[in-house]
C-alpha cells in the first residue's frame, strides 16, 4: 500500500471515529437534557399523566374557550416530548387524589372545580374573586395582604404553580395554571414551555408558585409575560381572618 493510499484510509478512519464520537456526545447530552425535563415534570418514559380541562364560563353549554384549547395543545406537546401518555378529563369528572401521576390543571376556580379543590388544599393564602357581577374586583387575586386587579386586555395576572404533596420521592407534581382570563392560562403554559429549564435549575423538585403579569394581550396575545414575584411562601400560608389588603390596579 502506497503512502498516499495509507493516508487516505487513515483520514477516512479518523473522520469516522470523530463522527461517531460526536454522535455519542450529542446523544448523551440529549438524553441528559431529556432526563432533566422528565424529572422536572414528573414524567418518566411511558408514564401516565392527567390533563384537567376547564369549561368556558361565558356559555351555559359544556365548551372550552379557544385560548384554553391552545393551552392544552401546548401542554400535550410537552408531555409527548417527555415520552409520556396523557388522559384528558373534564373539570367535573376528575374524582381522584393527586401524587400518583403528574397532573396539569387549567383554568381559574370560576371555571374549574378541580382548581377550587387544589387551591383549598395547597394554596390557602390565595383567594380569587369569582363574582360574575361587573366591578373593579371582578377576577381579582388576593395573595396574602396584596390584591391584584385586572384591566382586561391591558394588564392581567395568572398563577403558575408546581406543587407536590408529601415527602415521597416518587410523588408526582401538580401543575396549576390559574388565570384571570383564558388567554392568561395560555400565557402561563407558554411561559412554562419556554422557561422550564431555568425553573428546574432554580427550584429543582421543590414546589413553587409564581405570579405572572400578561401585558397588553389585546395586541400581543399570550406572548408578553413578566414575572411579578415568587409568592410560594405567602400562597401556602393561610390567610388571617381579616387580612389588610393592598390593591394593585392595572396600569
Automatic annotation (TrEMBL):
Organism: Streptomyces atrovirens
Name of protein: Secreted protein
Keywords: Membrane, Transmembrane, Transmembrane helix
Transmembrane segments: 6-29
Amino acid at each position: 500500500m502506497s503512502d498516499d493510499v495509507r493516508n487516505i484510509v487513515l483520514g477516512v478512519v479518523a473522520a469516522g471515529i470523530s463522527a461517531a464520537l460526536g454522535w455519542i456526545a450529542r446523544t448523551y447530552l440529549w438524553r441528559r437534557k431529556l432526563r432533566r425535563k422528565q424529572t422536572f415534570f414528573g414524567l418518566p418514559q411511558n408514564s401516565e399523566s392527567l390533563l384537567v380541562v376547564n369549561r368556558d364560563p361565558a356559555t351555559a353549554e359544556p365548551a372550552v374557550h379557544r385560548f384554553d384549547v391552545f393551552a392544552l395543545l401546548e401542554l400535550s406537546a410537552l408531555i409527548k416530548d417527555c415520552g409520556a401518555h396523557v388522559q384528558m378529563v373534564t373539570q367535573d369528572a376528575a374524582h381522584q387524589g393527586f401524587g400518583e401521576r403528574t397532573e396539569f390543571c387549567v383554568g381559574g376556580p370560576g371555571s374549574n372545580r378541580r382548581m377550587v379543590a387544589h387551591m383549598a388544599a395547597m394554596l390557602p393564602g390565595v383567594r380569587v374573586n369569582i363574582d360574575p357581577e361587573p366591578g373593579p374586583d371582578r377576577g381579582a387575586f388576593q395573595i396574602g395582604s396584596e390584591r391584584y386587579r385586572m384591566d382586561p386586555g391591558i394588564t392581567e395576572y395568572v398563577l403558575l404553580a408546581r406543587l407536590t404533596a408529601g415527602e415521597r420521592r416518587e410523588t408526582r407534581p401538580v401543575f396549576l395554571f390559574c388565570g384571570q382570563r383564558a388567554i392568561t392560562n395560555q400565557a402561563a403554559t407558554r411561559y412554562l414551555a419556554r422557561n422550564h429549564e431555568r425553573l428546574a435549575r432554580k427550584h429543582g423538585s421543590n414546589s413553587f408558585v409564581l405570579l405572572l403579569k400578561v401585558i397588553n394581550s389585546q395586541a400581543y396575545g399570550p406572548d408578553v409575560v413578566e414575572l411579578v414575584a415568587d409568592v410560594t411562601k405567602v400562597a401556602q400560608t393561610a390567610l388571617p381572618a381579616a387580612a389588610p389588603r393592598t390593591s394593585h390596579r392595572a396600569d
